[in-house]
Design goal:
393 residues, mainly alpha, Growth Hormone, Chain: A, 15 helices
Length: 393
C-alpha cells in the first residue's frame, strides 16, 4: 500500500516540478513577458487553489470516489499543458494555464486526503510516503536542467505526458469512496460549515493567518528563483535547485521525530525562519566565491517546506472531523496555495518589475523585501500561536 501511495505522489509532484520551476524563465527570456505578466502567470496556481478545491473537495467527500476525480482532472490537465506549450501570446498562455490550474491544484489536497484515508497514523506514516513526491520533483528538475530546457516550452510538454500517465495510474489506486452521505434534495454549500469549524480554535485561526502571510514571500522563490539564478550566472540552475528537494527528502524523514520533540508551534517557527535566512542568503550571495550562500538558500528548502507546509497538513488533518478531511484540506489549500500565493504573485511581480534594469534585475532589494515579509509572519506566529490539546474524535 505504501508503495502505491508513494508512486501516486511521485507522479503528482513530477508533473508540477517539470513545468512550474522554469515557466517564468521561458516567459522572460524567450517570450519576453514583463515582470508583472510573469507574476500573473505564476499566480495561476493560486487562482486554481482559490476556486477549484471547494468544488472538488465537496465532490470527493460526498459524491464520487477520490481516485476517479483525480483521474479525470489529470486527463484534462494533460491536454491543457500540451496546448499551452504551443501558444505565444500572454493572453493565450495565461488563459490556458489558468484553466489547467483549476484542474491541477485541487489534486494536491485530494492526493493528501486519499493518502490519509489509507493510513492508521498519518503523523508517523505520511512523511516517508510523501518523500516519493519530493523525489518526483527532483527527477523532473534534473531532467529539465540536464537537457537544458529551462528557457523552452519543452517542460510543459514533459508535464503533459506525465499527467496523462498519472490519469491512468489513478484508476489503479485503492478505492476511496466518499465518507459523508449526501441527502437527496438537500441544498449543499460549496463551503461546508463543518470544514470551517476546525478554525474556531485560537491555535488553528493563528495557523491560518500565518499560512496566508508566509505564502506572500514564498511566491518570490517559486516564481523567480530560477530566473534569478540564471541571471546570476549559475550553470544548470534547474538541476541545482533540486538540491532543495534533496534536503526535503531528509527533512521529511525527520518529521515524526521533530513532531514529537518540538511540537507544532516550533516546527512551524523553524520553517518560517528558514525562509528569512534563505532570502538573505540570496540577497548577498553570488555565483563566484559566495556561491555557498546560493547553495544555503537552495538546501534550506527542506526546512522551509516540510516544517511549515507538511507539518501544517498533518496538523489540520488531526484537527478535522473524519468526514470533512478532504474539504478541510481543500480549505487550507485555498488559504495557502490560493489566497496567499495569489497576493504573493501580484506583489512579487510588481516588486520584480520595479527593480527591472536595462539588462536583468536588481535582485538584492527584491530578496530583502521577501526576507522582511517572512520575518513579519514569523514574529506574528510565535507571539500568537498556542498549541492546544488534540481534539477528540
Amino acid at each position: 500500500m505504501q508503495a502505491r501511495l508513494g508512486a501516486m505522489l511521485f507522479f503528482e509532484y513530477f508533473i508540477w516540478g517539470a513545468w512550474y520551476v522554469t515557466v517564468t524563465t521561458w516567459l522572460t527570456l524567450t517570450r519576453h513577458f514583463s515582470g508583472e505578466q510573469v507574476g500573473l502567470v505564476a499566480g495561476t496556481t493560486a487562482v486554481g487553489a482559490m476556486i477549484a478545491p471547494f468544488f472538488v473537495g465537496l465532490i470527493a467527500d460526498e459524491l464520487f470516489a477520490t481516485e476517479k476525480v483525480l483521474a479525470a482532472l489529470h486527463l484534462l490537465g494533460a491536454v491543457l499543458l500540451i496546448a499551452a506549450s504551443m501558444l505565444t501570446s500572454f493572453g493565450g498562455i495565461y488563459a490556458v494555464l489558468l484553466v489547467y490550474c483549476l484542474c491541477f491544484m485541487p489534486t494536491l489536497a485530494l492526493t493528501n486526503a486519499l493518502a490519509f484515508r489509507q493510513m492508521r497514523d498519518p503523523a508517523e506514516e505520511f512523511g516517508p510516503i510523501r518523500v516519493l513526491g519530493t523525489a518526483g520533483w527532483i527527477v523532473a528538475g534534473l531532467m529539465v536542467g540536464y537537457l537544458r530546457l529551462e528557457s523552452t516550452q519543452r517542460p510543459l510538454q514533459i508535464a503533459g505526458i506525465a499527467s496523462l500517465a498519472m490519469a491512468a495510474y489513478c484508476l489503479t489506486l485503492p478505492k476511496t469512496p466518499p465518507l459523508a452521505v449526501a441527502v437527496r434534495g438537500e441544498k449543499k454549500s460549496l463551503f461546508p460549515r463543518e470544514a470551517f469549524a476546525v478554525f474556531r480554535k485560537r491555535s488553528t485561526a493563528v495557523f491560518v493567518l500565518a499560512s496566508f502571510l508566509i505564502c506572500i514571500p514564498l511566491q518570490f522563490y517559486y516564481a523567480f528563483a530560477n530566473l534569478f539564478l540564471n541571471e546570476a550566472g549559475v550553470k544548470n540552475a534547474a538541476g541545482k535547485m533540486t538540491g532543495g528537494q534533496m534536503s526535503e527528502l531528509l527533512c521529511m524523514l525527520l518529521i515524526p521525530l521533530f513532531f514529537r520533540r518540538l511540537g507544532v508551534k516550533y516546527m512551524l517557527g523553524l520553517g518560517m525562519l528558514a525562509w528569512v535566512v534563505r532570502y538573505v542568503a540570496f540577497a548577498y550571495g553570488n555565483s563566484g566565491g559566495l556561491m555557498w550562500m546560493f547553495w544555503l538558500g537552495i538546501v534550506l528548502h527542506g526546512i522551509c517546506y516540510d516544517f511549515f507546509f507538511v507539518t501544517g497538513q498533518i496538523y489540520i488533518d488531526r484537527e478535522s472531523a473524519p468526514t470533512m478531511r478532504a474539504a478541510t484540506q481543500s480549505l487550507i489549500t485555498f488559504i495557502t496555495y490560493g489566497v496567499g500565493m495569489f497576493v504573493g504573485s501580484w506583489v512579487s511581480g510588481a516588486v520584480v518589475e520595479h527593480y527591472t534594469l536595462t539588462m536583468g534585475h536588481a535582485w538584492r532589494p527584491i530578496w530583502l523585501f521577501a526576507a522582511v515579509a517572512a520575518g513579519v509572519a514569523l514574529v506574528m506566529m510565535l507571539a500568537a500561536f498556542r498549541e492546544e490539546p488534540k481534539s477528540a474524535g
